[in-house]
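Quick question: what would this complex look like in 3D?
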Amino acid sequence: MLLGLYNYWIVVLLMMIGFYIVIAHGNLIKKLVGLTIFQTSVFIFYISMGNVDSGSAPILAEGVARYSNPLPHVLILTAIVVGIATTALGLALVVRIKESYGSIEEDEIQIQDQLTEDKTSC
Amino acid sequence: MIAIAIVRTKDLLAVVMLTGIYGLLSASFFVVLDAVDVAFTEASVGAGISGLLMLAAITMTGRAEAPKRHKPLLALLVVFITGGMLIYGTLDMPYFGSFEAPVHQHVAPRYINDSMQEVGVPNIVTSVLASYRAFDTLGEVAVIFTAGIGVLSLLSLPRRRRSSELDESSEDSTEKQMHEQHMVLRIISKILIPFILLFALYVQFHGDFGPGGGFQAGVIFAAAIILYAMLFGLDKARRVFNQSLIQLIAAIGLLLYASVGVVSLFNGGNFLDYNVLADDPLAGQHLGILLIELGVGCTVAAVMIIIFFNFAGRREAQQSSPELNATEQNSPELINSTEQKGGE
């Protein structure tokens, strides 16, 4: 009955896609998108853990015997909004990097840094 | 599938569009998993605001991604090893949807069984968020507030530049262009915006009984304002919500939240213990939840508006014209997503 674990596999798949984007791509905005995907995979992980067979949404009503676990919902609900706020902060940083370096590709920025370092050391 | 497409696509604009679709999809996924509150938030944040902010950033940074220079093989290897280990780790996890899983054994039964007597709010998510774990939520609101301050300090412009340069000809011409090009959009959004605002208020104050609450309401409220700012020009929107006013609102929201805690301290309870706010503990809980949800809503909405205004203001200051077209083409998409939000 290994198939009962499929939700975790979806999570792992998404997480690895996000991870791959973060480490393999040089573009900073793409990296942020990758982080967002990574983040969503964690959200799905929590929510799928809180799910119960034949459960209902955790709003008390008559005639409902089983509710899914409200605790992960609370944690993720706030995490989503905090996530967008931090992503916005990251994007703001990217914009400033673009303004001062003229590029948002990681390796180009590194080359520029290298050049300025050489200049100062000489 | 969409995630894979995001990996492959080089055009960042398409990536952002795909991210929006991805957000909406994961929102519907959350509905399937009985997490309506979360789905609500994800639909408004993932499909609406986040795509919008990324668009705003892309207009400033350019949309093409440089071709890769190093081999992705090493990265793939690392990813596969990590993924394999994670999947190996899941083999001991409880099955999907099983009732006996350890997650459901500790605090959750108390929330489900007793929250009606202790808090008196049908939506368990709200009662956990705003009452049992209120301190946690206070911290999260503070994080959002701090992120808003961070964006402000990174992107805000000196005041005199804004007033002297931006009200002149270039601004007017783009605005006229938009007025001619997007008549339908403007009229429809004029009709829609009051309803979006009303819906946000409904979500805000009905969060005790149905899905909703301060976080979602704040985001939806901000979405309405941002829609207005996009279609009628930033300056007009700034006239309604000027910078210092929304900064004040953001701070007041957080202060309101924290001061509810302090008041409950003075009334002889613990920090954020609402039972002492009124004679009847349940009435106290209701009052406390209402107030702190209001605080959360204020802060979230104000911070989102601050973030957007600063991104857009920055872009206007740069005024790089070829990229400007990219945003204009996208406004229908954004309105669609807002409509979907309204429909849910």
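Answer marked as accepted. Confidence is low (pLDDT under 50) at residues 160-169, 320-344 of chain B.
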